[in-house]
Amino acid sequence: TEIYTLSLHDALPIWYNVDTHIHTVTGGPWGDSGDLVEAQAFFWTATQAGSFGYRCKYHSAQEQAVLRVTA
């Protein structure tokens, strides 16, 4: 499992789809990103610290990771 870290209140394009397949960022306090097509980004502002698991709802077995938000 990949682990990515960012700081509380960061607002970044956290996920950027570089693939030709549709992906999602599903889980954590953001819920679901909706479908991300190639070159589309999903932004989320970290408002709470913690570790949040997420996955792609279409490719959950291969596409999963943990986002760690530090205070």
Secondary structure layout plus pairing:
Elements: E1 2-7, E2 11-16, E3 26-27, E4 31-32, E5 41-45, E6 50-55, E7 64-70
Parallel strand pairs: 1-7
Antiparallel strand pairs: 2-5, 3-4, 3-6, 6-7
Provide a quick synopsis of the model.
Helices cover 0% and strands 48% of the residues.
Provide structural commentary.
With 71 residues, the chain is an all-beta fold. It has no helices and 7 strands. It has strands at 2-7, 11-16, 26-27, 31-32, 41-45, 50-55, 64-70. A 5-stranded mixed beta sheet has the order 1-7-6-3-4, with no helix packed on it. Strands 2-5 form a two-stranded antiparallel ribbon. β3 (26-27) and β4 form a beta hairpin.
Low-confidence stretches: none
Give the amount of beta strand, in percent: over 45%
| Cα distance spanning the termini | 22 Å
Shape: globular
The biggest beta sheet, please? 5 strands, mixed
Q: How is the largest sheet built, in terms of strand order?
A: 1-7-6-3-4
Content-based structural category: mainly beta
User: Would you list the SSEs in sequence order as H and E?
Assistant: EEEEEEE
Estimated helix fraction: under 10%
Based on DSSP secondary structure assignment, what is the total number of beta strands? 7
Mean pLDDT over the residues: 89
